[in-house]
Specification:
This protein is mainly alpha-helical. It contains nine helices and no strands. The chain is 80% helix and 0% strand.
């Protein structure tokens, strides 16, 4: 009997994860307000009621989506930290995360959600802010490391420079998507790194 329970629990987790996979792709392409429960349920091959079993409402699904995305992004940052890279190489690896997403014809999930911030439920708003705070804190530390080592230079505080890095990458991503031209993001990345070097 225990085996049956394990299988059922695994199937529930798998369905929830697949729902989040679909929602992530759709939100990265259309935005949160451009995606409905019907869209996700239809691709998943379940009823909207079945989707509500896993996520009580669209806001709960959105919050779970942001939390999962943040966890994965933090893991990517940890992987960068685990490599024997100097600060400029870490900034370059960070920017490469954005480029990889754009090459899949998607946008940064939290960048898309930031554009819709005023229309999001409060828990989602807090989760989006948390995502960017985590990124700013990581970049601030790397920029401070680079400044101490003499490999990176920036005016003002490292926190302000971290905000410029994020703003540049998110904005360049939008414009590159508009023109369907990832080289625009690459050019912005190169310019950003040149200005920090």
């Amino acid at each position: 009997m225990l085996g049956c329970v394990d299988v059922a629990q695994h199937a529930e987790v798998d369905t929830a994860e697949r729902a989040l996979d679909i929602a992530e792709r759709l939100v990265q392409m259309r935005g949160f307000n451009g995606v409905s429960y019907a869209d996700i349920a239809g691709e998943l091959g379940v009823t909207k009621a079945a989707l509500h079993y896993h996520f009580a409402g669209k806001g709960e699904l959105g919050e779970a989506l942001i939390n999962r995305y943040t966890t994965r992004f933090v893991a990517a940052l940890d992987a960068i930290d685990a490599e024997p890279l100097d600060a400029p190489a870490k900034i370059s690896a960070y920017a490469a995360i954005y480029l990889a997403v754009l090459r899949r014809q998607r946008m940064c999930l939290c960048g898309m959600l930031a554009a819709e911030y005023q229309t999001l439920p409060a828990p989602m708003q807090r989760a989006v802010v948390r995502f960017f705070d985590i990124n700013e804190t990581w970049l601030e530390r790397v920029l401070e490391e680079g400044q101490r080592a003499g490999s990176l230079h920036h005016r003002g505080s490292a926190r302000a420079a971290a905000q410029v890095v994020i703003g540049t990458l998110e904005g360049a991503m939008l414009v590159a998507r508009l023109h369907d031209d990832p080289t625009r993001l690459e050019a912005a990345m190169d310019q950003l790194l040149a200005e920090l070097a």
